[in-house]
């Protein structure tokens, strides 16, 4: 099966200098790939490269088998959506307006969203269980609600692959769980999701595959169980890490 997103010999960085090289990622439908790494390892740089916002230092990104470099912004938007961090938004947009931006991403630059786009935006809000927030101002929502609105925007874009920048950062326990469940539901519906996290426990609970991105290159990648070992995480963060598995099978790192 053609992966939704893949990389071949990808090196990412700035000004022609690679932060990380030799990335061979493969994101099939229905999978969550979590990128873990210390501050400054290059997770955001990788995501910006996968989104086509900065060029690779070497290698290439393939979207549904097609080289990203040959696709227009609109073709990229049809296949890949970005969910940024839910930072406080000073603008007085309603949640529905934000989601409409996703629904309109495939329209031409001068086209205005019409009834089909509004219906798609409402359906996305409904799917995430927040249709009642459609008219709420984004600035008045909680961090968790804002994150769900941004995921709804990506869904309204109807791209199969989603890139999420620390989607559960700064969320409380309940919202973290809610957003985590939404991510697993999306994978269950056939989306492929790449996300970053600073929480190994949460990553282990959410992901099908992980990429451990160290300051000097990839430390390991593959399944959660085989990759998230105490030794690999100790190397990744430069501190002693122990791993435990609870009775339910969930992994915990200390
Ligand atoms: N536009 C830029 N030009 C040059 N260097 C940059 C640029 N953006 C980021 N960097 C550098 O690239 C390195 C990786 O940054 P990046 O933001 O990708 O890391 P990160 O893993 O996402 O970190 P964090 O976990 O703190 O978000 C850092 O050393 C950063 O200073």
UniProtKB/TrEMBL annotation:
The keyword Nucleotide-binding applies. GO terms for molecular function: ATP binding; ATP hydrolysis activity. Residues 5-240 form the ABC transporter domain. The keyword Nucleus does not apply. One of its GO terms (biological process) is zinc ion transport. Keywords: ATP-binding, Ion transport, Nucleotide-binding, Transport, Zinc, Zinc transport. Pfam families: ABC_tran (PF00005). PANTHER family: METAL TRANSPORT SYSTEM ATP-BINDING PROTEIN TM_0124-RELATED, MOLYBDATE IMPORT ATP-BINDING PROTEIN MOLC. Belongs to the ABC transporter superfamily. This is ATP-binding cassette domain-containing protein. It comes from Paracoccus limosus.
């Amino acid at each position: 099966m053609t992966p939704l997103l893949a990389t071949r010999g990808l090196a990412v960085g700035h000004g022609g200098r690679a932060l990380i090289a030799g990335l061979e990622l493969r994101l099939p439908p229905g999978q969550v790939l979590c990128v873990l790494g210390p501050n400054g390892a290059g997770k955001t740089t990788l995501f910006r490269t996968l989104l086509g916002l900065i060029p690779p230092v070497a290698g290439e990104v393939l979207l549904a088998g097609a080289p990203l470099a040959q696709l227009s912004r609109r073709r990229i938007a049809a296949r890949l959506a970005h969910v940024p961090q839910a930072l406080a938004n000073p603008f007085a947009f309603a949640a529905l307006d934000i989601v409409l931006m996703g629904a309109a991403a495939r329209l031409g630059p001068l086209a205005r969203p019409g009834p089909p786009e509004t219906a798609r935006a409402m359906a996305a809000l409904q799917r995430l269980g927040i249709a009642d927030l459609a008219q709420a101002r984004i600035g008045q929502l909680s961090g968790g609600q804002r994150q769900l609105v941004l995921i709804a925007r990506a869904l309204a874009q109807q791209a199969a692959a989603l890139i999420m920048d620390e989607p559960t950062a700064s969320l409380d326990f309940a919202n973290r769980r809610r957003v985590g469940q939404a991510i697993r539901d999306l994978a269950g519906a056939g989306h492929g999701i790449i996300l970053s996290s600073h929480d190994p426990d949460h990553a282990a609970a959410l992901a099908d595959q992980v990429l451990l991105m160290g300051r000097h290159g990839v430390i390991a990648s593959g399944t959660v169980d085989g990759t998230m070992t105490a030794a690999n995480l100790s190397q990744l963060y430069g501190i002693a890490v122990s791993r435990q598995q609870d009775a339910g099978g969930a992994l915990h790192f200390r």
